[in-house]
TrEMBL record, chain A:
Protein's name in the database: Nickel import system permease protein NikB
ABC transmembrane type-1 domain location: 98-295
Record keywords, A-Z: Cell membrane, Ion transport, Membrane, Nickel, Nickel transport, Transmembrane, Transmembrane helix, Transport
Sequence similarity: Belongs to the binding-protein-dependent transport system permease family. OppBC subfamily.
Lineage, uppermost ranks: Bacteria, Bacillati, Bacillota, Bacilli, Bacillales
TrEMBL record, chain B:
Protein name as it appears in the record: Peptide/nickel transport system substrate-binding protein
Membrane spanning residue stretches: none
Domain Solute-binding protein family: start-end pairs: 85-440
Family: Belongs to the bacterial solute-binding protein 5 family.
Amino acid sequence: MLQIIKKRALQLIIVLFFLSLLTFVLMKLAPGDPVLLMLEADTFAVTQEDEDALRKELGFDKPVIVQYGMWLLQLLKFDLGYSYLKGKPVLEEIMYRLPATLQLTAGGLFVMVLIAVPLGTLSARYRGKLPDHFSRIFALTGASVPLFWMGLLLIYLFAYKLQWLPMMGKGTITQMILPSLTLGLGMAAEYSRLLRAGLLESLSEQYIRAARARGIAEWRVLSLHAMRAALLPVITVCGMSIGSLLAGSVVTETLFSWPGLGTMAVSAIFERDYPIIQGFVLLTGLLVVGVNLLVDLSYGLLDPRIRKPKGELS
Amino acid sequence: MNSLLHTNKRLIALLVLLMLSTAAIAACSSSENANKAEQGGESDAEKKVTVIRNFKAASLDPHNSFETLRAGIVETLVRLDENMEVQEWLATKWEAVDDVTWVFTIREGVTFHDGTKLDAAAVKASFERGIAASEVLAGSLKIASMEANGSELKIITTEPHPALPSELVNPYASVISVTAEKEMGTEAFNNAPVGTGPFEVVKFTPNIEAELTRYDGYWNGKAKLNKVIYKFNEDSNVRALALQSKDADIVYSVPSETVATIEQDKELHVESIAGLRVHYLLYNQQKPLMQDVRVRKAIDWLLDRQSVAKDVMLGNGTPATGPFNSSLPFGSKEAVQAKNGDEAQKLLEEAGFKLNSSGKMEKDGKALTLELATYGARPELPLIAQLLQSDAAKAGVTINISTIENADTYIRENKDWDIVTYSNLSAPRGDGGYFLNSAFMPGGSLNGTNYENEAITSIMKKLNATSDIAERIKLTQEAVKEVMDDVPHSYAVYPNLIVGMNNRVTDWKPGPEEYYIITNLMDVK
């Protein structure tokens, strides 16, 4: 296990290096820079000289590769730099937003598990019967309703019509419910189907028949024996979902005034706030690689056959 | 079997852990401002208003965010009145002693939220802090040095700066207590700045909301409200729903398509007022074709301003008659130019174009085709482009529309366009100098096509050296006349500011400048 982690850490550094280089070059190839926004040219009189002076101060007149080198050198000192437009260090901005994103990710996953596991299990158990039809309709609806629309519908119903839950903001648990539902419902639709397919496949395996023959209770066969095998593909996909959730969910964050990483990244891209974009890419790269490592390790937990290195006898 | 059960326990443990951690993370975050803030009603003792703004504020640093002044926490030396004229506020009078020297008299009897007295020295310290914190402010004030003497503040500028009083309207020039900042530390101060306004900060959650309470020692009469919740949400539909559910009392920038629904509710209404922005067409005079004023004028005739205001803006806009809204002291008061395809064709014929057999305008066998670039950041602009495209087609002019991401960069770098739909605040501080200098003077930040016009330049030189208000208005109008004759732009519409409000809010109206939102006078029924 330690070996795997060591190897992954090395891979991580290489991945992050190329990721940041690629982002930096692409960013610089795209037209525009943050100078006009920094000088607030849409409200204040700015001259060409002011612009050129600022560009020079920021080092935009140097070749791209030199600019990247400067950023990298700074990074080696664990300094992510200073945001051009937010007026604070990149690390501070990211660290302010990361907990909000983690909360939203956890909330979304919680809702997903809460709905997808029972729904997927029931529809596999009662294949072709009422629960299965219900789950199919739920999945179809959930997968086809766009996120922003789902969010607005939830706000309309629970915050406007029924007035049970707050409409926006972050701080209390009640304020977490609607954003979590918005994220979780769509995912639950996908995962309930995935789980159903996995369960159906493993239910047709010989060992299930053997388990049933031994007189093991049906719920046990389903939730212990079949579930383990069915979870493998689910966990794989889940790893990818978590990765994208950790990168932030722009729509949900905007709807609920949720200060997550997604809106930060998108506005940084529009504003060409390069240090923020670079910091964001590094962080999400790190998180995605980390989550994938966890997913790989969890395979071993679920399936003992994976745990043993090749050639070793059990 | 045993190992199976064992793994299963781990699985369950994993799930439980996931659920617990979710709950834990949620519980960890502060829950001080529980549900109280969400409830619309209040007792007699508490008069509260909830406002939702359409932009976020990550910090309340008054020298880097406009929202602090908007929320009634800080104030400036001078302010704009409803006629967009500069009036006294924390300064009671000001005069230009010579070309580079201004003397401001600071109001007596004003105290900051921490109880310290406002005097010229405090203003000087605040300006020094602002200039260090904001390059933008430094660039617009052009201060060389300051001298504070009791209530008199002498400002010496680096160059003649007749527009200084109007530049001081800038929210970045807000006066704060620098002594309070020293005591609290900059970070804490930026979350709860100490100013002279009618409200002080109780709690600020970046990008989400600020909770404000009345400052009892306010110099201009204690505020009638005792609490304000000042929220931020960038989704217009959610803002409209918050108003309809009575969660919010004042909501900025309501989508025009929800106006009718809001008006149906007897407890709500919508204020739609002409703002200080102008949507317009910008012509690329780097292209030989667009250098011909007759071609530019022809397109100008093809722009249906009434339809833009009525159909594109759904009535929430005023047809434009020039760069400046007619409600401004120097705004153009002429009638709106109606669309006229015949005039357009006449001008194009003068410029050597002829209608060909297929009904297209052509010159030397080449049909008149214009490239128009537009962008989606302001959703009305692409619609204005489409309207122009269809009206131009009727007159035999083909317009190809392309969508770009960043207009500022595109205008400067890409020379392939003839027309761009553009939008600017033309008089953000109640003075025309900013827009005229930026858009028509060589090197100006809005002059991406390097437009130059001798007549305008010479008027601007005079304007930039004039401090007398009446004279400035006259010169601004003269410059605008030259602009209208030469048609470097075609002004389409002044978009309205649409503010939804609950009828329980009294003694309050949104202003076109969008600066003075929370006031001491606003009240609730």
